[in-house]
Amino acid sequence: MPTASSTVTSGRLLSLLSLLQVRRDWSGSLLADRLGVSERTVRRDVDRLRELGYPVQAVKGPEGGYRLEAGSQMPPLLFDEEQAVALAVALRIAVGTGAGIEEAAARALATVRQVMPSRLRQRVDLLDITAAGRATQVDTDVLVALSSAIRSAEEVRFDYASPSRPADAEPRPPRRVRPHHLVARGGRWYLVGWDAAREDWRTYRADRMTLRTPSGPRFTPREVPGGDVGAFLAARFKGSTTADVWPCRGEVVLDLPIEAVAPFAGDGVVEEVAPGRTRLLSGSWSWAALAAGLARFDAEIEVVGPPELRAAFAALAGRASRASAAGKR
Predict the structure, then answer these.
(1) Which sequence spans correspond to the domains of the chain?
(2) Interatomic CA distance for residues 156 and 58, integer angstroms
(3) For residues 63-90, average pLDDT
(4) For residues 58 and 50, what is the distance between their CA atoms, to the nearest angstrom?
(5) Which of 44, 113, 118, 294 has the fewest Cβ atoms surrounding its Cβ within 10 A?
(6) Residues 222-255: pLDDT tens digits?
(7) With the CA atoms of 299, 302, 307 and 312 taken in that order, what torsion angle do they form, in degrees rounded to the nearest 10?
(8) What pTM was estimated for this model as a whole?
(9) Which residues are in the HTH deoR-type domain (predicted)?
């Protein structure tokens, strides 16, 4: 049965290991001060970590010290309670990332859960996480290769399977892109990079990429417009080349109560102008798409502006009229 002394020692070893992981070098005196023990005790605890398989190296210098290096094999892993729960949550979420690690993540979660104390296991079991939608699968090797190219700032060459391109079309030369960010969004992985030939930023789905070897030359990384890759990618998906806003924005008044509009307004702005009438400021990637999206409310619509939205409604009405007449022939 563990004694109070062994419990204190185990807790101190865990604290020592956590400290060694957060910075490269530690002096013996600073570790002793942080742990509230003598430097002699620190030396003994370091020896215990080495016996467990952790490659703690001595650092030469005026004060001496310690450094946790990478080893040749995986030593036993020690986590505090918050780290263990965070790891379990991350492993459950990993199943829905599409990164090709679903089976490995499930096995890792089972391993972690098995060695957890019962109180932590109960907390983890209460986490009922369901990944909505189906993630697009990507070869793990592709993600690793792209991440490596981003870190080393090396140009990548790849073939790209575009769904709009006919299958019997002449093959294109490999694309050459300077990779900057690998982003997971909506169950898919995207590479954001600079295309030097087009002198513009481009976004590619990783599941459509077939990497070529060898990779291209090194380059000097640059910052995406605005500095926030998440906002940049969101803007591109809205059809905007600048800020994260829809390129086509219009204002209408709907003959509907605000409670019937608000749940379906997306990122639009709603305001009650009178009982049963609601003002809606909304946006889309084109005027035709915006008019069609507003028409789905199945109510009388008063267009406040701009003129492009009125023209889009007129064009939509013409198409609807022709479609209706075609069905009577």
Answers:
(1) 4-68, 81-125, 140-162+173-237, 248-326
(2) 40
(3) 70
(4) 11
(5) 118
(6) 998 888 888 888 878 777 766 667 888 899 999 9
(7) 10
(8) 0.54
(9) 9-64
